[in-house]
From TrEMBL:
This is SH3b domain-containing protein. It comes from the Bacteria. TPR repeats lie at residues 57-90. The keyword Signal applies. PROSITE patterns: PROKAR_LIPOPROTEIN, TPR. Residues 1-20 form the signal peptide. Coiled coil: none annotated. The chain crosses the membrane at residues 131-152, 164-181. The keyword Transferase does not apply. Residues 195-244 form the SH3b domain. Pfam families: SH3_3 (PF08239), TPR_1 (PF00515). Keywords: Membrane, Signal, TPR repeat, Transmembrane, Transmembrane helix.
Length: 248
């Protein structure tokens, strides 16, 4: 497991108007200093302060490291997942997340179809804006293909190439739509407290359906006041109080 701290580079400081805020930079550096001196709770609090002002993978990655050192596996997974959303192919983030997940005592059997699992895995590796860039490139190629035909004033016969571009355009558009749904509409959650009760309804008075261990990941499908309706990959559904769940 890689527990090295993510550091701010001079280029990052120069290019980011948010990081140019000296107070945020000072808080981040102070958190790193506390981490180096094994003051993990203090470091976590300072990273949390920085995260309130900047949505950056480095901050969440370091928060995950500090939480792991505090033996808070739920908070560690939550912040590694937040970091992964912003930097989905970062090796350190992925390795640390996998390491902490592998140490969970209880794991839920994934009963979803292979296609749904494959789709989730694929989409987690690509950012929404990367789909946008790919869509733009294919559109420009199609537009250039049409303009070339107009300039030469004749019908160009590149049927296989045209079909390939159109298929790519459709697949990328579908992928972009699914990614938008996952990112903007669907909400992931992580259990951040040990032995969390899941009720049949949004109240402590409702009967307990089952319990969740710290670090388990769920889909949030509804909300009622301070309660979240969650679903697991094995199909189980219930209501959890917000104090036991962190939203990615």
């Amino acid at each position: 497991m890689r527990l090295k701290l993510a550091m701010l580079t001079a280029l990052l400081l120069a290019c980011s108007s948010v990081w140019a805020d000296e107070a945020v930079v000072s808080t981040f550096q102070s958190a790193n200093e506390a981490y180096r001196h094994a003051q993990f709770e203090e470091a976590f609090k300072k990273y949390e302060q920085a995260a309130q002002k900047i949505n950056d993978a480095n901050v969440y990655y370091n928060m995950g490291n500090a939480a792991f050192k505090m033996n808070k596996v739920g908070l560690a997974i939550l912040n590694y997942e937040r970091a992964r959303q912003l930097n989905p192919r970062n090796r350190d983030i992925l390795e640390n997340l996998q390491y902490v997940q592998s140490g969970l005592e209880y794991k839920v059997e994934d009963k979803r179809s292979w296609f749904v699992r494959w789709n989730d895995q694929l989409l987690s590796w690509v950012k929404l804006r990367e789909f946008g860039y790919a869509l733009l490139v294919v559109y420009i190629l199609l537009l250039g293909r049409g303009c070339l035909g107009l300039i030469l004033k004749k019908q160009l016969t590149f049927k296989s190439f045209d079909r390939f571009l159109i298929i790519c355009l459709i697949l990328i558009a579908i992928g972009m739509g699914l990614k938008y749904f996952n990112q903007q509409i669907r909400q992931d959650g992580v259990v951040i407290e040990p032995n969390v009760k899941v009720h049949f309804g949004p109240s402590d008075d409702d009967r307990v359906a089952f319990r969740l261990n710290e670090g388990m990941q769920v889909d949030v499908i509804d909300k009622s006041n301070d309660w979240y309706r969650i679903s697991l990959v094995n199909g189980e559904i219930g209501w959890v109080h917000r104090k036991g769940l962190g939203l990615v």
